[in-house]
Structure formats: structure tokens, C-alpha cells
Amino acid sequence: MVEQYTYLKPLGLYIHVPFCLKKCCYCDFTSYPYSEAAAGVYLDALFKEIELYSQGLPGWDKALASIFIGGGTPTCLPSRSLTAVLDRLSEVFSLLPGCEVTIEANPGTVDRQALIELRKGGVNRLSLGIQAFQDQLLSMLGRIHTAAEAVETTRAARMAGFEDLNLDFIFGIPGQTLADWQETLSLAASLEPEHIAVYGLQLEAGTPLENLVSRGKIQPCSEDLELFLYQTAIQYLSGQGYVHYEISNFARPGRESIHNLGYWLNRYYLGLGPAAHSYLPCGRYANESTLEGYAGRLAQGELPVSTTEAGTVRTEMAETMFLGLRLISGVDLTAFYQRFGRRVEDVYRLEITRLLKAGFVEFANGRLRLTAAGLPLANEVFIEFL
Amino acid sequence: MEWEKKDSIRNFCIIAHIDHGKSTLADRLLEYTGALSGREMTNQVLDQMDLERERGITIKMQAVRLNYRARDGREYQLNLIDTPGHVDFSYEVSRSLAACEGALLVVDASQGIEAQTLANIYLALEHNLEIILIINKIDLPSAEPERVKQEIEDVIGLDTAGAVLASAKSGTGVEDILEQIVVKVPPPGGQVEAPLKALIFDSHYDSYKGVIAYIRVVEGTVVNGMKIKMMATGEEFEVNEVGIFRPSLTSIGALRTGEVGFIAASIKNVKDCQVGDTVTDAQCPAAASLPGYRKATPMVYCGLYPADNIQYEDLREAMVKLNLNDASLIYEPETSEALGFGFRCGFLGLLHMEIVQERLEREYGLNLITTAPNVVYRVTITTGEIIEIENPSKLPPSGMIELIEEPYVKAIIMCPKDYVGPVMELCQERRGNFTNMEYMSASRVILTYNLPLSEIIFDFFDQLKSRSRGYASLDYELLGYKQSNLVKLDIMIAGEVLDALSVIIHQDNAYYRGRLLVDKLRKLIPRQLFEIPIQASIGNRVIARETVKAIRKNVLAKCYGGDITRKRKLLEKQKEGKKRMKQVGSVEIPQEAFMAVLGIEGK
């Protein structure tokens, strides 16, 4: 599956929906409490932004391989608004056959009816943020749902006709035990999703959870336990028939996330909505991060871009390496050569020699990949390529 | 014939304990005599370095000429030489004293006599200077001028009847001070017709003019275009600029007997213009040179290394340039297995060391690693030969050592009697030998101890201040060498001796210090991809051990949502952190680790 996406075209499209019913304690993404009025402002602006791209994209064509509606909690918005956005997108851009259309949802924000409408409206993949199956851990994270509600939503999604389902989980939550995590993994597998993502909890500066930890109010998960939980997940999910294809991602064969593969293969993508990021031949750029700024720029008929970074070939190579090495299969050496006209082994000769010697990377099947030892220390490997 | 103006010259300096208001008083004198307009006035005019102003200390002496019309109606030329107050720089003080006939002794009206007040007074008396006593800061609520006067009479035996009560801050007493200078300080002696004899009391390097020599003309005259000769080196030069300090350098064409000023003579090499040398007329040389100064002896040594080896050449150039303006700095190239190429440098004291390091970093944009300071040890080896060890890692193996001697100082500590206990305790801990205790007044005491210099450079001063709540003051002078039971403590990181961390310490402290040091290093060295054992050893015997655990996990869990730039910046930050460390073998060691030997006293 990975093989057929090693070319740069086509494009992935990301839409950021900056609303949540309540922000989680560990989250530092742009998100506002949902209100109908704010949603109105947002949707208005989003349609304007889509219109601005109807004339074409700078230096690229508009064929889409994937659409990903993320947030925030996209399903805060009424289903009909979301499907209206998709309808407009399919008119302005062209959706390639088999285009993956994902929406993120949180248990407790969608009912069966909404899920049916979304499925009918063209969404073919659902990504549910379940995080844990222990209510006390969910409340530690500031989630608004219970474990039971999560199971219920998963079942509702199946009944609504979603055949491509991803479940997100978090390990390394303060207070989480090995037994908790094993329970979560086995319950997850029993729901038989096509795709599972497991993230180590990252304490982002400024979030309420990080604040509690840094003031010593709660004890963070130890590094040793976190590593053990991670290895437990790899072992268990592999045994359940899931392919570990990226540092944090597992899928049934052929069910890897097309949209996210685009990021890891360092392909181009267009981001719509406040704080969304884009990567196009002209460089990387970011939209205005506040809803007000975003809507304001669009009201004046301008693209809501706030920062751009032209990027050098050197940066592009570094990014191709550190993103590509996130894939368990590693960086395709031929694809790198085709893209840059230079061989990975020549560009990073010293670095690779060092890493090979340390046993953190290896060459296999025409690729350079992390070894089992390199996997939990991926950042230490990545910085060599910067 | 006597030069008619000579009688109206007064050369004087200001001496004081640090913080007693010396630089502020200098400011007032400049202001009062109109040497500077209010607009040009900044605080502490004579402290020109940013560092001096920030720290509120004088590092480098400065000179300035003031014109003053006295109450007798005559116009006087006053040459003021500002001096550093810190014990490290007493060498500079003695240089400026030699160029003067009088000294203003500034004593804080609430603090009274401090250790350096005493040291400076003795220096001034040695030079037969007329002392004008100034009780400063009398406007402070805590001022007790009468008590301080009594103290001065009791301790120094100086008549305080004519003491000026002043406040340099508000300007009170400034006119009285100027009058006393005119009345009490004798005019310079010396023959105007005699062959030129001028004392070089300081110098600085100017990239256009070469070395600028600060001189006091003792006899004769120096004029523009004159051929001069340096009496110590025999080198000859043609003077191309003669001038005075106003306080900026101002050309005047000639300096006559008794005057203070500068000369420039396209002197490219600082060695040709040694401070303390005598300048004479090349055509008509003086018979004998003036008494020079004893050369400054470095008391403290440390290694200075560029954090990045690429900067070695830059560091070398910076040392050469800094040395031009700071002759007391001594340096020679040195190689460390751990740190690569660098220099072993000798300093007058710890403050001097800190200042040199800071100036190199600030003024020359260098990123330096400083090793812990040490004194010079004198080692007699089994062949009977005596060698001097300026770098602990160079100590011969114990089998070759007959005995080791270390420098001792006579330390004079003044403190309120309530703090005598804690201060004595500190001195005992630092291997001090008590020699004397005297009451300066009913409430203040002078303690005299013989202490190993090496103990003083291990944050003794900070400890003294903290144990006496800031009330104790310290001055010390070198006594000589004394045999001690010393050993070399080595630090091994990942099995390799890190030469830059070796220290020579007293046997009795070795275990304790070894344990503290290893523990401190464990906290300073960041976790790396493998386990790092840290050991302290004496000879082949390991006396302490700690381990820095390996990093087991370092991975960004989530990498989508498209903000790749932010991910990259996070990674770049991690990489940047590594760059600031020194790679020693396979281990990355942060710069602070090399100073870890200091400040391990905290119990």
C-alpha cells in the first residue's frame, strides 16, 4: 500500500474545525467552545476560502487523494453543514477515484442519525478519539465521554455503514497502569477497527495537565513505564493482525491512512480553516490562527495566510528524512533520488554511518529504516538529518 | 630655574574599600571642577567599561586632570588617579600610589574600617603619601561619623581632627575636600632642568596609535617629537603625541615635571612599554631609573577553552588584545585531552578571572569553557628537583612525589563580634591556622588567620559573606609556601579520566569532596543514549561512583495535522542543546560541568 503513494501527486486536503464542546486538559490545538454564532462565522469564512481556491492552486492541480476533517471536534457542527462543505469541495476540487474522506469525531458528540448523514454525505472513514477505556483516566484527561459511550459510538458507526474506522488511544496518562493499558488494547481489538493509533501522552506547555504536573500536583508516568506500554501495544496489536506501519499507527493490511501517509511521504497538502497548515510547491504556510483573524482576512477577500516559509532543498531533504523515517518501512531510497537527484547515502554519509554504528537505523529492501532499538529514540535519529 | 607652575600641581588618588563610594566621589570632583558638563556626566564616569558600571566596581585605574580655583584665588592643576578597590587589584593600587603625593582615604560612615581600608592605608603610608580622611555617606540614617572616627584613631592611629564629613552622593563636603588637597598634599618635587624621568604607571592599547603609556613626569620634560628611551628594555621611540586626561585623551604637546598625562610613540609591542619602567630622553638619558614595581604574581590559574574548537584562533587573538590592556593577565597554550586546545591563564584573583572570562565572551563574542581555578603547587620530586604545577592534571604520579607545598596567605578578616564564631568556624573548616584576634572597637573584631590560598578560591568569600550576613570583609596577602598532605582527585566519566576536572585537594577532604562532586556531575550531565558511569578516584582507587541513566524514550508521538515546521523546530531545538555541549569521547558534557568543582560546599 505504501508503495503506490511514493509519488508526490496528488494532493491531500485538510480542514480544521476549531470547536469543541469542552477542551481537553492535554490539548494545545486551536479550539473554541462551540456556539451557533461562532460556527456561522466559521462556515461563512470557510466557504469563502474554498471559493478563493476555485481559480486554481499556486503551482499545482486540484486532484485530491484525500480529505481529512479534523479539529477540534468537527462533529460539533451539524452534519448538514459538514456535508455541504464536502459538496462544495467536490465541485471546486476534483476527488480522485477512491478518495479517502475522513472525519474526526468524539464519542458523545455524534449520534447514529448524524453518523448516517455523514456517511451518506460522502465521508468514508471515521476517526474516533476514544483515548482510554477507564473512566477515571478519561476524566483525568478532561474528556466529556465515558468508556461505555465510546463503545456505543463505535457500534453506531458500524451501523451507519462506516467500513473504515480508526480508534485513537493514549498511553502514559498519569495514573495509568499496565493492566489499564492491556484492558484498553484488548477492548480496542475486540471492536475490530481497521486502524488503531496509539499516542504517548505529550505534556504540552501551557495546558492544564502540564500545569498540574509541573506544580507537582500529579505524578507523571515514568519513562520506563511509558516505554513498556508502547512496546506492549506493538506486541499485542501485531499479534491481533494489525500492521505497525508508523511510529504511532497500526492498520489492517491495505487500510493505512492515505491522508496521513501523505504527510509522512512529505507530499503536498492544502489546509483550510483557522490555524491550518499547507505545503505546496511555493513553500509551507500557515493560516491565521484565531477565528477572528481568519474570518477577518477572508471578509476582505484575501487568503488568510499569516506566515510562510519558502524552505530550501536542504530543509526539504531533512523533512523527507525525518517524516519518512516515521514509517516502519522507512525512507524509499529510489524515491528520494527521484525527488532530489541525490542519493540519501551521499547527502547524509556521516550521519548514517554514525547511526548504523549505534544500531538505530538499517538498510532493508531499498529503504533506510529505524531498527527496533531506534524506534523509541526516533527523535535522536531525526536530529541527525537537520 | 623651577618651572613656575609646578607649585600649583597636586597629584592624588582615592583609596577605599569596595562600595565605600570612591567612584561617586570621583564623579563629584569632576563635576565640581567643571571637567565635565552635566550633559556629559554619567554615573561613575571613570568606570568606562560596561562591566564596571554593571557591577559597580572599578577594575581598571583611570586618570583625569581637574582645574580648580582655590579659596586663595590661585588656579591649581589636580591630577586624580582612580584605583580599583577589590583585593585582587591591590597591585594596581600600589602602582597609582607611586605616581601621587597624596591620597583621599574614603571610609563609609556606617560601615567604618574594612579589611581593604586597612590594606590600602598601609600601602599609602609605605609610599609616604599625605592622607586626607573622608568620612563618606554621612547623610545615611545609619551614619555614625564619631564612632568611625574613633575606630580610625584606635586602629590606625590616624589623627581624625581634619576629617571631612562628606556625602559624595549629594555633593556635601566636596569643596572642603578640594581645599584640603590644595593645602595638605605637597606639590611634586623634581628638577625641571634634569634629564627626563617619567614613570609608566599604566598603559592601554589603541589600534591606531599603538601603546598609550600613562606617565607621571618625575623630572624634566617630555615634548612632542622627542626621542625617548625605555630604561628597562633600552628600546627607543619618537614621541608623536603628548597629552592629558580630561578625562578623554587631549593633546597638549608637552608634559613637565610633576605632571600626569600620556604619551604615544607608535609603540607596537606592549613588551616595549612595561608598566613600572622609566621613560627618559634618548639623547640625554637619566643616570638611574626610578624604582619600579614588583611584578604582579598570578595567584590563581585556570584553563580557558573555546566551547567550539573552531574558535581557538579567535581566542588566541582575543587573549593577545586583552593582554595589551591588562598586563597582569598571564597565559600560555595548553592542550587538554578532554577540551582540546586552549590556554592556561594566571590571574590576580577570582574576580580578575571572572572579569577576564566575561570580557572575552562579551567583547570578543567567544563561547568559553572555564575549568575550576587552582593555585600553583610546588612539588619536590624524588630526584630532588622542584617543579611548579599550574595544572592539577600535570601532577606527577604519587610514587614520584617527595612532597607537595601549597601557597598560604595571611588573611585579615574584620567583622562584628557577634559573627566571630561562624567566621572562625569557616576558617577552621578551610584548614586555617588562627594567629590573632583584636578588638577594633567594643563591637568589631579583627581576626588574623593563615589559610591555604586554595581554600580561599573555593568560594570562601561568598561563605564569609553569608555566615556574617554580609558584615565581614576580607583582605589577604601571600605568605609563602608550606608543605601539605595533598592528593590529586581525578574524575572518570564513562571510564575515562577527564583531565580538565582533576583537582588537587587535602587528603582529609578528598572523600567528602569526591562524593559531592560526583553527585553534582550526575545532576549536570544530561541523560544520553547510553548509561554513563561517573567516578571519583585517587590514584587507582575509586572513592565515589554515580550513574547517569540512559535515555530510553525520545519520540514525538503525534506527527500530523500538518504543522511540520513546528515539529522541525522542536527537533532543531534539541539539536541546538547538544551543540552547546562539549563532546568528550562519546559523552556530551555541558559547560557548567567543568565548573562543578566550585560551589560543592553546600551541605
Task: Describe the overall structure.
The complex is a heterodimer of chains A (386) and B (603). Chain A is 39% helix and 23% strand. Chain A has helices spanning 36-52, 79-92, 112-120, 135-141, 147-159, 178-190, 208-214, 223-239, 258-264, 291-299, 313-324, 333-340, 344-347, 349-358, 378-382; strands at 11-17, 19-20, 32-33, 63-71, 94-105, 125-131, 165-171, 195-200, 243-246, 249-251, 269-272, 277-280, 283-287, 305-309, 331-332, 361-364, 367-370. In chain A, helix 2 (79-92) packs parallel to helix 3 (112-120) and helix 6 (178-190) packs parallel to helix 8 (223-239). In chain B, the strands form 7 sheets. In chain B, strands 11-10-16-7-8-15-12-13 form an 8-stranded antiparallel sheet, with helices on one face. A 6-stranded mixed sheet of chain B has the order 2-3-1-4-5-6, with helices on both faces. In chain B, a hairpin with a 3-residue loop joins strand 18 and strand 19. Chain B has 13 helices and 33 strands. Chain B is of the alpha+beta class. Chains A and B meet through helix 8, helix 9, strand 12, helix 11 and helix 15 of A and helix 13 of B.
For this entry, give a set of tags:
heterodimer, A: 386 residues, alpha/beta, TIM Barrel, Arc Repressor Mutant, subunit A, 2 domains, nine-stranded mixed sheet, three-stranded antiparallel sheet, 17 strands, 23% strand, disordered N terminus, B: 603 residues, alpha+beta, 13 helices
**CATH class call of the largest domain in chain A:** Alpha Beta
Radius of gyration of chain A: 21 Å
The pLDDT mean of chain A sits at: 93
Main sheet attributes: strand count, strand direction, barrel closure of chain A:
9 strands, mixed
Count of DSSP H/I helices of chain B: 13
Q: Name the chain pair whose interface involves the most residues.
A: A-B, 43 and 23 residues
Look up the CATH topology of the largest domain in chain A.
TIM Barrel
Molecular shape of chain A: globular
SSE class of chain B: alpha+beta
Query: From the coordinates shown, what is the CATH architecture of the largest domain in chain A?
Result: Alpha-Beta Barrel
Poorly predicted regions of chain B: none
Whole-Å distance between the termini of chain A? 28 Å
- Which blocks of ≥5 consecutive residues of chain A have pLDDT under 50? 1-6
What is the number of strand segments of chain A? 17
In percent, how much strand structure appears in the residues of chain B? 25-35%
What level of helicity do the residues of chain B show? Answer: 10-25%
Oligomer: heterodimer
Q: What would the average pLDDT of chain B be, to the nearest integer?
A: 86
Shape of chain B: globular
